[in-house]
Amino acid sequence: MSHRTFEDVKNVILSAHKNTEAGDKVGFYNTWAENYDQDVGLLDYRAPSLAANCLSPCFHGDRVTAVILDVACGTGLVAAQLKRMGFRHFVGVDGSKGMLELANKTGLYQDLKQCMLGDEPLPVQAGQFDVVVIVGALSDGQVPVRVIRELCQATKPGGYVCMTTRGNHDNLEYKAALEHELELMEGAGLWGHVAITEVEDWEKAVAEPEKGYIPGVVYVYRKSSQ
Length: 226
Description:
GO terms for molecular function: S-adenosylmethionine-dependent methyltransferase activity. It holds the Pfam family Methyltransf_11. This is Methyltransferase like 27. InterPro entries: Methyltransf_11 (IPR013216), SAM-dependent_MTases_sf (IPR029063). By secondary structure, the protein is α/β, with parallel strands linked by helices. Helices cover 37% and strands 27% of the residues. It has a seven-stranded mixed β-sheet, sandwiched between helices. Helix 1 packs antiparallel against helix 2, helix 2 packs across helix 5 and helix 3 (47-55) packs parallel to helix 4. The longest helix is centred in the first third of the chain and has 21 residues, at 22-42. The protein is globular, with a radius of gyration of 16 Å. The termini are far apart.
């Protein structure tokens, strides 16, 4: 693994914003997979630990038997955090074969599936999972907002869905659309919010003119028991 700097990471992430087509995105993440864990460390990317820390106190079931669907799982950073908190059973979904190969090497996942979120249906049965998590992928140019309905469908009645998004200027329109959809689904009785946690220091800023850290949000919803 090469020695990389924050400037390297910044250039990689800014180049990702230019790759808007699904095929380009997959190619980008396949190429980035080898350096991904090192790069998010340089970015001080806190979303996996922040999401796990928000979800953990909300979950009151048996962690040893609970089955977690890790959507846009990448290399397995979220599953690693949740394993420290007592969870043991993980199914991962990601669009990138390169990321899935690295996730497989962690030994955390009982099953891994490749899927282009938004272009293909989520490859799981409805009502199967105690917890569904999607960390980092709900943002402008990544996963469309409508996918959260599939996350809810995959969750068992009474189960939990944990989602994150960024709060920086470039993502504000997406964040507003996401929160509108979350509220529509709550109004329709599909789920209820358990915790919404806004975080100022989410990750280091990469886009001009932002400096320091950008903010982010963790949403935890509980699916209706009906």
